[in-house]
From TrEMBL:
Residues 334-359, 372-395 are annotated as: Disordered. It holds the Pfam family Alpha-amylase. This is Alpha-amylase. It comes from the Bacteria. Residues 253-344 form the Fibronectin type-III domain. Keywords: Carbohydrate metabolism, Glycosidase, Hydrolase, Metal-binding, Polysaccharide degradation, Signal. Residues 376-393 have a biased composition (Polar residues). Residues 1-27 form the signal peptide.
Amino acid sequence: MRRTPLCRSRRPFLAALVATGLLGALAGPPETGPDAMETVAADANTATVFYYTKTKNWSSTYLHYAPDGGTWTTVPGTTMEAACTDWVKQTVDLGSAAGLAATFNNGAGTWDNNSGVNYALGSGNITVKDGVIAHSDPCAGTEPAEGNKATVYYSTATTGWTTANIHYAPTGGTWTTSPGVGMEAACTGWWKRTLDLGTATSLKAAFNNGNGVWDNNNSADYALTSGTSTVKDRTVTKDAADPCAAVEPDTEAPTAPTKVTANATNTSVVLSWDAATDNIGVVKYQVTRTGGTKGTVVTDIGSTVFSDTGLEEKTGYSYTVKAVDAAGNTSPASAAATATTGEKASDPASGTPLGTDPRKDPIYFVLTARFHDGDSSNNRGGSQHTKSGNAANNDPMFRGDFKGLVEKLDYVKALGFSAIWVTPVVLNRSDYDYHGYHGYDFYKVDPRLESAGASYQDLIDAAHAKGMKIYQDVVYNHSSRWGAKGLFTPTVYGVRDSQWSWYYDERNEGFEYDGLTVEPKSGKAYYNGDLWSTAEPSGNTCLNWGKPTGGKSAEGYTLYNCQWPSPTSGMFPKALYHRCWIGNWEGEDARSCWLHEDLADFNTENTTVQNYLIGAYDKYIDMGVDGFRVDTAVHIPRVTWNRRFLPAIQERVTQKFGAEAARNFFVFGEVAAFVNDKWNRGSVNHSAQFYTWKERKEYSADDEAAALEQFTYENDQGTGNQPTSTNAFLDGNNYHTPDRSRFSGMNIIDMRMHMNFGDAQNAYGNGKDSDDSVNDATYNVVYVDSHDYGPNKSSERYTGGTDAWAENMALMWTFRGIPTLYYGSEIEFQKGKKIDCGPSCPLATTGRAYYGDHLAGSVTASGFGTVGSASGEVANTLAQPLVKHVQRLNQIRRAVPALQTGQYSTEGISGSMAFKRRYTSGSTDSFALVTVTGGATYTGIPNGTYKDAVTGDVKTVSNGTLSVGAPGKGNLRVYVLNGPGKIGADGPYLK
């Protein structure tokens, strides 16, 4: 059938690359070699088009073309001449055009017009082979001469390139002309080229797709040797086996999954199992459900836990699981697990995450139990109420709640924050557990935080209705000292005699601890009768159970063995919990031992533990939270995060809400490195940025062995051989598409800036110094102080002064990263007070004091950073100078995309805290020049009209230079190219 050529002047292939983000997805062209930056032929106004004829087998070939912006040749076009075997060519004069649109035909009515969209070609040497465009000369002396040879295999499985070129220079020789020589398709996902090295035995190389997308090993180029090498995901394997060699087909099926358990809650079932084994590796599991009226349902799942929701009430279900490997071999079915659902929950999870880029949302961090009390009936003081001094202040540790937070969402919105980080919500159990980090029942929201009409779901839904996100603090590393309900809880020894009966409650078989309900026998909400026993439990491994230790308590009471849980007491099964104390905070034991006596350390390399935690946090994902702040992330091996927990989060969000929501589900980890160096005392395994990267090699299939292997390998690699990134940095004045292909899924709290915020200049300098080692520092969560520490590991809330606070905020709200404020800092709440002293002092005297008194009255927000109305004490709070400051900073940041998601650079800039930022996407192109406190001069910037978002000042740049006078401490200037001008009203600092 005759195909009529399409003669539209368009560049569909290039446009597709831009749309899919492939352009710039890898580092730019290599900087080494004399021709490294050359991307087109030397004669830029011509294009030599080579066309592959072997597939078509035409007797003659015509090129029908139109230079960009020009007219098409007369059909059928110009005759192409023979070039070399299977190739014809034609050189086209482009004039001033940058490229051409083209089709090919045999002169007799048979056309190749790229499936109806024409070929979009550039300049220089261009090949068109079976629909694939590349830039090279296929006829340029490719026959190898005698001498040393290097056979290079390059994997495009990750990048998805449809062709590959190698640009190289033998050691002591010159570089090929960009883009190098074309590589041959070797097998699926692999390209191959044998190179003549002459007398050289090694070479430098970079790779590209022929259309401007490069892989140059993070600007370091690849060092290869003679012989056979493979390059896959930036890893070079010397003397490698042929990756395309025929292999015996995998016919061995995985083993059947074991220990399948099913537990029903209302109309949901959580299914978990131990991982199957396979000679190569399991890639997925098939869960088969029978029961109910919907018949048999088969679901593919990537992890070893599955949450089945929306089932029928009071119905029995049976589940079996099969394992599947990459070859499609399927294991036998597991033994069946059954569960019967109950009644449908009266308050079903219904939330949906907002799903937008988290960098757009400044974060307000609250200790929920200390923020605002909306319902006094759920207040609880606990066993330390009197001892702590809280009773004397009428200040129970559990005082704030979700109802109080819902009531004051408009306060947070009026400050300008669109995300709220809340402390852990799971049921806690400890003598002092208001903060949420002593989890006991990970599947249950702590009732001390909930009220009628103000459940956790209600908070999520209420926040979303106001356009605000909820980030939930989550703990994977440890449970309370009393274990984790549903996984393991220890039985401890206690004699209910005249000494200890005040502490050991009598067992009440019909009562279940929830932290809120008062147990009638003891009169306590913190009842512990379910934990204590005078009879030795079956299978006990704790030595000298119940025998006196010979010591006395602080009160003078007799102490008994196995009276208190500890890692070395034998009271915790080693399969589920670790049994050691941390001895070296930069050693391997920091990832596999207890932090504190009240934090029982999970064995997170155990499948049962993994399934328990994944199933628990799936529940909160389903409720619609927008992200997780990960507590004590550094105390779990990175390989465990990368293999188990992070993929499980992504899988669940994708399953429930789609891929876009999963991409923007914000996970940020606490990797507490309390030092001022780039790498935590030289230990990469204990440095925050380390957790933003995927693994660089394969480890043992056994998670415990893999954790040790990973620790040793990365320690041996050291700080000088870690991956680097340009994702946070501009390329000159230009934004480039970040390469997130090696991102682990975990972002980080910027501990280095936090530790140095005693002075904004120090924080700025330290932050910049670390950014190339973070996968993408534009996602860093940045704060001055928190519920744990102030700058320089201070144990006090920040007390640097109002001017210093204003300066810190000005930097945080304009520099890369996500600004975060600990509750009350907007009025310097509790400045200089000890942040935390446990139950040894009243909470009212600490940095975790109750904030609700400052929120009394009513407030409505008319927008982010603007107050609609306010009365009572909250009106006075909103009138404070730092409040005005943070409101306007939030207004400015929300109006300038470059300040939210832009990359930055200090190139060509003088000034102590001065930088330029840019973000480009679609029709958005936001370019801003920022200086904090001091003056600055910017050179080499685009010409045009710049408007200051703070003052409205207008500067016209015609020579690439703009100078700004010093605005003063806490003040700043934000000159935006073609910007909106002044944003907001002058305040105490921004004016």
